[in-house]
Design goal:
This protein is an all-alpha fold. It is 79% helix and 0% strand. Among the domains are: 155 residues, Tetratricopeptide repeat domain (Serine Threonine Protein Phosphatase 5, Tetratricopeptide repeat), CATH 1.25.40; 84 residues, Serine Threonine Protein Phosphatase 5, Tetratricopeptide repeat (Alpha Horseshoe), CATH 1.25.40.10.
Length: 413
């Protein structure tokens, strides 16, 4: 376990110090006629030949005795885990910040966390940067001294509250220390002070997602929408709310942002607010002349008035269902005609049309069975309703019809 922690520590060190990345400005400050060799070395790095690049920089050091080349060679050797690393580190003298970072990296690479920690403390005395505090905190974390590690991470964040550093600290708290609450707190504080930038809010969304904290995910999507005015964020929020079946909150979002009246009309219906659903569907029909809204108007009017306005309901269906050729609307209209004994034959014809379009729907099959029952054709009714299956027949909606049909069959015997 100890050696694994040391490997992770080295990985953090390499990322934090940019090991393996070209630093052209530093190298080209050297007054030397080695430009082509320097370029060649960095081309090797780009091609993945990091160890060869390290060797080339060491050759440049031997020619010039300039430690800039030696440090670059050591840095690349550390990244490549080159066999020449021990020799290079032995030649590195001095205790400037860059040299100390290289020595820390080397100590981590040979699993000497105690030595790495002493060097990191020495480095902080010279350079109290956020990056250096993070480096020392990482070492404490790998030693399982989380209390001290957190103190140092917080210190690093106090020094540099940039978005990049905040995201780095949040990642460490969440992924490394397992402190999701602390990570969430830091991200939220940053957002409250600086706004919901996409990068930060996406980080926070990931944290909330891992916690299955859907309510806060919705809040973040709303903040992102307000910051960016991209409708996709509202879509994301609504997807979560519909997944949760939190229709009241979905209604709030839709009304607040005046977004997607079609969906709002359906949400009203889901909440049993059929008058509101009807009024909105009517507005949408007037705006679009889309017959789908007319069929919905018929359904909503029936739900809040039942047969009080049956003539209007029939008129709305007649003006929409045939053009739409939709199984749901055929079935709904047909069932009303059957159940209220308005026109059982026509109702049965409609639900059979629905069946042609969707033969697997238990609701449509039930409507057909109910139509035959109403026509006193109980043998046909029982054949149809038994197609639904035992699981559905346990549900109250189907059970009532099934019991009446079976009673009819027994009465004929």
């Amino acid at each position: 376990m100890y050696w694994r922690k040391a490997v992770i520590a080295l990985a953090f060190f390499l990322c934090g110090c940019g090991v393996g990345q070209p630093h052209f400005s530093t190298i080209y400050d050297v007054e030397d006629n080695s430009d082509l060799e320097i370029i060649n070395a960095y081309l090797m790095v780009e091609d993945g030949e990091v160890a060869k690049a390290s060797d080339l920089f060491y050759q440049l050091y031997q020619k010039s005795q300039n430690e800039v080349f030696l440090k670059e060679s050591a840095k690349l050797a550390l990244s490549a885990k080159s066999n020449s690393l021990y020799k290079l580190m032995d030649e590195l003298k001095g205790d400037d910040a860059q040299t100390l970072r290289l020595k820390i990296g080397y100590a981590l690479s040979i699993y000497e966390l105690k030595e790495a920690k002493q060097l990191a403390k020495k480095l902080i005395k010279k350079d109290k940067s956020s990056q250096n505090y993070i480096l020392l905190a990482n070492i404490y974390a790998f030693e399982d001294d989380k209390k001290r590690a957190m103190e140092l991470y917080n210190r690093a964040y106090e020094i540099d509250k940039s978005e990049d550093n905040m995201i780095r600290i949040v990642s460490i708290f969440n992924d490394f220390l397992g402190d999701n609450v602390g990570a969430t707190k830091i991200a939220n504080e940053w957002i409250n002070q600086n706004g919901c930038g996409q990068r930060t809010c996406y980080v926070l969304l990931d944290l909330y997602s891992n916690l299955a904290d859907f309510d806060n995910m919705v809040k973040i999507y709303e903040k992102l929408y307000l910051e960016n005015e991209a409708s996709q964020y509202l879509v994301n929020a609504l997807e979560i709310l519909l997944y949760k079946e939190d229709f009241k909150e979905a209604k709030r979002v839709l009304k607040k942002y005046e977004f997607n009246d079609d969906l709002l009309s359906q949400i009203y219906a889901q909440l049993g607010e059929y008058k509101e659903a009807y009024a909105l569907a009517e507005q949408l029909y007037e705006l679009t002349d889309n017959k789908d809204y007319k069929a919905k108007m018929a359904i909503y009017k029936y739900e809040f008035s039942k047969t009080k306005n049956i003539e209007q309901i029939i008129k709305l269906f007649e003006e929409s269902v045939y053009e739409l050729d939709n199984s749901v609307y055929y079935n709904y209209y047909g069932y009303i005609l059957i159940d209220h004994d308005i026109n059982i034959y026509k109702g049965l014809e409609l639900v059979l049309k629905a069946y042609e379009l969707n033969p697997k729907s238990p609701y449509i099959i039930d409507s057909i069975a109910w139509g035959y029952y109403k026509l006193k054709k109980c043998d046909m009714a029982i054949d149809w309703i038994e197609k639904i299956g035992a699981e559905y027949l346990k549900q109250d909606e189907f059970k009532s019809h099934y019991n009446k049909i079976t009673k009819c069959i027994k009465g004929k015997k």
